[in-house]
Amino acid sequence: MTPTVTMTSSPEPDQQPHRWNDHVSLYEQVFEPLTQSFSSAAIAALSLEPQARVLDSGAGTGGAALELAACGYKTTAIDASTAMVTRIKQRASARGLPLEALVMDGQNLMLPDASFDAALSVLGVILFPDAVRGLSELRRVVRPGGRIALVTWTAPEAYELLGEIRAAVLLALGSMSPRPLPAQLRFRDKEAFQALFAAAGLPRAEISDVTAQLAAPSPAWLADRLAFSPGMTELLDGFGGRKSEVLAAFRSRLESMRGSQLVSLSARAHMASVTVPPR
What we know:
Layout: H1 24-45, E1 53-57, H2 63-70, E2 74-79, H3 82-95, E3 99-103, E4 116-122, H4 131-141, E5 142-153, H5 160-173, H6 190-199, E6 206-216, H7 219-223, H8 230-237, H9 243-258, E7 263-275
Parallel strand pairs: 1-2, 1-4, 2-3, 4-5
Antiparallel strand pairs: 5-7, 6-7
Helix pairs in contact: 1-2, 5-9
């Protein structure tokens, strides 16, 4: 049976672009260093020629786009969060990189057909309410013979940060209410990820696993910065008046297990790449 691709009817916190405007700094500090390993793998899979025109959809604070621009590629980064795009422009300007950054919905790209040689999206398209539309738009704007690379989460049980938060909740509160899997885990299985490409009119993708590390100077530093995304903020705020107990338990457990200095937590993702077929 071929897996179906589902859309999310009620957008989750992480699917609401305006809510990311308040998380730019923490996301860049805490989470972009983790996702940069995924970005580098996706860029390598694009097999880019010099001066290639590349689109980064759902660019966040610009980690992948800045890496592309630094390598000399003609890079355009789009994100639906105005604050994220402002930050990309600031970082590109500070480094003297010729990078175009635009506020744009990745599900409705205001860009011409076949105007790019390649495109990537690192944990972006897979978060869109209509991920099929987001990938279909990449297919439209990338020329035939060009490459597309997507990164999605896999193996949530191997996401050590979430495991440590769950353990801290159990330690502090004794139980944790069941929660539905977030939208970004819709494609955690390879079959579901392949179904996304098929639904967007693309051939079967090459999929590999990439493991990365979320590194923090200390458990205390990380505990103070856990609200790095709308979804994490909602999770923590859901503990109400006991939020501080959960954060204290998170810090204490990490310190007892891994020490009070540098801490590294692993995470795993699927990286898929495909060549755009003739139209």
